[in-house]
Amino acid sequence: MGPKKVIVGLGELLWDLFPDGARFGGAPTNFACSAAGLGSERCDVYLASAVGIDPLGEEALAALVQRNVSTSHVARNHRPTGQVHVRLDGQGHASYEFEPDAAWDRLEWNAGWEQLAKRTDAVCFGTLGQRSPDSLVAIRRFVAATPATALRILDINVRMPFISDEAILGSLKLANVLKLNDQELPVLEPLFGLTGNPVAMLRQLVDRFGLRAVAFTRGSEGAILIRGEEVSEEQAVATAVVDTVGAGDAFTAALAIGLLHGGDLQAINRKCCEVAAYVCSQSGATPEMPSRFR
Length: 294
Description:
About 35% of the residues lie in helices and about 25% in strands. By secondary structure, the chain is α/β, with parallel strands linked by helices. It has a 9-stranded mixed sheet with strand order 5-4-1-8-9-10-11-12-13, with helices on both faces. A 4-stranded mixed sheet has the order 3-2-6-7. A hairpin with a 5-residue loop joins strand 6 and strand 7 (about 95-100). The longest helix is centred in the last third of the chain and has 16 residues, at about 265-280.
């Protein structure tokens, strides 16, 4: 099988505070947990983040270990472990209110992160994790330090007011894979003067930023993947939605593993949609993955 691939979730670690209790979350954290659940036999998965010196921090580290995600690059600092208040509408779709100045807002570049970056085969980062100047610098240094062969996956997070044109543009300049959804593409449309149907707009982004691949998720309408000249359009998998939190992150994890191992694009897209549908059918962002997905 060869050496295991190194996959890194880079950025925020937090607790999603639902009306019925707290659940482990944060987009890069969800990505890392899903990647470990899908590919632990073929991948070593790390989270590069920070938690507070508090009970929620201890619980977060334990949750990562339980999910086979390495905590060796999760720092402890004197800010509180991140929290976000989640509200669900009648269809299970979520809205978020983030606590300010959390531990993940104080990420620091260090020698350990540099060593990990040099070994990384795929890293997933977003725009939300860069809401503070400290974390913006640390995240971008990590991504820039990964090998030229690595997948640098940007998962754009439109979380008002923590989004800006600079955050999007600066991140896209570093990325070589882009994942976005049907709420995020309209944000990029006026920013970059995109025109035409979704496939045409995605191709314009590929050409402008030299992307190796782009994924566009559309909820119940399925997903579009583009890799080079290939285009895959896949229908959504029907499921009884409990909540949608973490589904996009699971999609991205399946995408990373598929791209790393050079799979057929249509097969990758189909599996990504199946994984996302499964997460939608479960409560919380990081359910245990069934063996059929491994």
